[in-house]
Amino acid sequence: MTLSRNTRRWFALTYIGLCIGYAVMVMWVLPWWTPALLALAWLVPAHRFGWGAPEQRAARRRAWPWSLLPLALWWVYIYLDDSFGKLDLGAVIFHLQAGIEENGSTDRQIAGAIYTLAAILMLVCVTWLVRADHRWRLWERVLSLFLLAFNPLLFGLSLRGASVIDDNASWLADRYRPPQIVSAPKQPPNLIYLYLESTERTYADTQRFGNAYEDLTELGRRGVVFQGVQQLDNTGWTMAGMVASQCGVPLMPAGLMHDNQFEPLSDVLPGVDCLGDLLKARGYALTFMGGASTKFAGKAKFYRGHGFDTVLGKDELLDQAPADYLNDWGLYDDTLLGLAEARIRRLHDAHRPYAFFGLTLAAHPPFGHPSQSCRDNQGPFDGTDILYSVKCTGWLVKNFIARLDADGLLDNTLVVVSSDHLSMKNSAWEQLIAGPREDTLILLGKHQRPRIIERQASMVDVLPTVLEAMGFGVPDHRAGLGVSLLSSRPTLVERYSLEELNRRMRSENRLQEELWTGVN
């Protein structure tokens, strides 16, 4: 059955209009009916000027439109924006180089396939319109230039390319201080550092998010709560948040400096000492545990390359998890924290200082992966409410710390509870972006007087803060680009603003080169 030209015309024009409307809806976070409204607005001039109408002269040459590649690149950008809420080119580059195997985002993989089919259909419709109406043959050439000039994906690439040329800039490098410990307490404390996947302190706003954060608020009353910890560029994904808090620097990808750019990285930041390196040199036993695979995004390479004796993820813990009780990423958090508790008991009984780092995943966007124990406690999960998953994270962590404390395992231990980064796009996205956002950072321990410290800071300030909270002395209260938030020294954010730091990262690469010295 062959469709008439007029039927093909209106199908092509309507579909193009819906695609334009969908792109606008995603980029500006507009209501679901936006695509239909903009499609109608698109069809008005289409009818008025007879775009693709049978009486219009067809293009003399059946050449391919110039706009196909620019449109395809816009589809890539819209997919990234829809998936993560904000284009983070650094994250894309790093994950491509560090490895994306064992990725648990099944929903985004399915979405990627749907996006691909939708993009191909739009390109077919555009090709038909350009060939059916000779006027569009000229217009779409001009349109191609605008599509290339205003694509944020290409704009980000151009900025990174410019930084490779500007190799004399060293503003960040001049302010970097290699992490060092110059004094230590007589009895070094243990360290338990819990990264809460995407569980930002923004959720503490009860007017927007109800009781989702209440267990972490209650936990914070026992220790030091930091307010005002903002997110620098290149710290907005899990590995980047870990690097920032442990190394005192943003995770600026190796990029063009990597000799084998299309091969996986062999090391992650080999040119810098991080928290693991410093503690290892002082006899600490170091352990990392997470429910997801440590192969994803170079986690195993980072931890093993920076002093950790034990690095455990889904593959290593699978035989200890209940049968048929896994999510797309790996172990549920109640399973993980149960295994973590057993591991900490063994570390405690070894009578050697230790540092334990754990990573939850219950609040992973877009909807989360709440544990069965949370469902038993909170009631049924509707499958989409990220606030349910955030609540689950706080409840599990609060109970986990309470169990350790009740058994005397925290007597000489600093506990750090922090988000790894601000959440990417999730089911509460409109509420999240409706106001200021900040990361979670809580210190718990017998020497941590309960209080709130409000500072303009970022995750690079966590490293010197944790070291000083453990009783270690660091030169001038500084480590990496960070400043201890327990000191009165101003942070870089306080001195120069978050925007200035982000601008410097885009315009220079001296520090980036130093961090990746020795990478293959």
UniProtKB/TrEMBL annotation:
Keywords: Cell membrane, Membrane, Transmembrane, Transmembrane helix. It is a multi-pass membrane protein. It holds the Pfam family Sulfatase. Gene3D superfamilies: Alkaline Phosphatase, subunit A. SUPFAM superfamilies: Alkaline phosphatase-like. This is Phosphatidylglycerol--membrane-oligosaccharide glycerophosphotransferase. The keyword NADP does not apply. Residues 189-471 form the Sulfatase N-terminal domain. It is found in: Cell membrane. It comes from the Bacteria. The chain crosses the membrane at residues 12-30, 36-51, 63-80, 110-130, 142-159. InterPro entries: Alkaline_phosphatase_core_sf, OpgB/LTA_synthase_biosynth, Sulfatase_N. The keyword Membrane applies.
